[in-house]
Write a structure and sequence with these properties.
The protein has 148 residues and is mostly helical. It folds into three domains: 52 residues, no CATH class; 39 residues, no CATH class; 54 residues, no CATH class. 52% of the residues lie in helices and 11% in strands. The protein has six helices and four strands, in the order αααββββααα. The strands form two sheets. Strands 1-2 form a two-stranded antiparallel sheet. The protein has a two-stranded antiparallel ribbon with strand order 3-4. Strand 3 and strand 4 form a beta hairpin. It is extended, with a radius of gyration of 20 Å.
């Protein structure tokens, strides 16, 4: 029997039941796409239905907030050499140093030691999260050792 739990984000639904419903899709289709999961969740009798925002005005606003996150995370500073040609290295313009505050300019973070330390700690935590998610993939054992 499959037992599941929610990770970083929690939903108002039983994780094990949701995992089973997604496994049903996998059994039929060999994998489950987000679109297939959404289609299954449209059925109000499914546990997955509880994970979605069905009020379109609220869902639209949540999506716009998601888009705002994408915008701020995708902006990069491209340094140019003396001939105004872009250098191959690009630096993100904004970062979040914690879960409480918003995105901060990279230039500001680099000038404030406590903010830079917070960014390093966030980076470390995210690397540990990736390690935890994929630690069973033995081909990356050297990477997991470096993260420690």
């Amino acid at each position: 029997m499959l037992t599941a739990t929610w990770g970083k984000h929690f939903f108002k639904a039983d994780a094990t039941k949701c995992a089973s419903e997604i496994m049903e899709i996998c059994d039929q289709m060999e994998s489950a796409t987000p679109q297939q999961i959404l289609e299954k969740a449209r059925d109000e009798s499914t546990e997955l239905h509880k994970c979605f925002t069905w009020d379109d005005s609220i869902a639209a606003e949540k999506y716009r907030i998601h888009e705002a996150r994408q915008i701020v995370c995708q902006l990069k500073i491209v340094e140019q050499d003396i001939d105004n040609k872009p250098k191959p290295t690009a630096i993100r313009v904004f970062y979040k140093t914690d879960d409480k505050s918003g995105y901060k300019p990279t230039q500001l973070i680099l000038k404030q030691p406590d903010e830079y330390e917070a960014l390093l700690e966030r980076c470390r935590n995210e690397l540990l999260s990736v390690k935890q998610k994929y630690q069973n993939i033995s081909e990356y054992e050297e990477v997991w050792e470096l993260i420690n």
